[in-house]
Specification:
The protein is mainly alpha-helical and 109 residues long. It has 2 domains: 1-57, no CATH class; 61-109, no CATH class. The protein is 28% helix and 0% strand. The protein is built from 3 helices and no strands. The chain has helices at residues 2-11, 25-33, 75-86.
Length: 109
């Protein structure tokens, strides 16, 4: 999530001061619950027992998802990949985003 936070912060013209960075949402949430700082995390990653610590900010943010496999994909995975690559991106038109939502483009786009 740090890449998402950095991109959004850049979009809004500031650089966040990172206290700690982790690649795991569960670790980031634990840091925040223990008072080390705040974190951005998908709503579905927050355990119910921690929901009282969570705050929704704005209308949320949206990003595209990527799928990969280290091994040869199964037939089902291949069909899923084929379905994903046949869809025109972005999936959500700018006009269909909730009010106040921000779409931050990749620097390569």
């Amino acid at each position: 999530m740090s890449e998402v936070v950095d991109r959004l912060a850049g979009h809004f013209g500031f650089t966040p001061r990172a206290v700690a960075r982790t690649g795991q949402a569960s670790a980031a949430l634990l840091f925040a619950v223990e008072g080390i700082g705040v974190t951005g995390a998908p709503e579905n990653a927050i355990p119910l027992r921690w929901s009282r610590h969570a705050r929704r900010i704005g209308s949320g943010y949206f990003r595209e998802l990527v799928v990969f496999s280290r091994e040869l994909p199964s037939q089902l995975a291949e069909r899923y990949r084929d379905m994903l690559t046949s869809v025109e991106l972005p999936l959500t038109a700018e006009r269909d985003l909730p009010e106040g939502a921000v779409r931050v483009q990749n620097s390569s786009e």
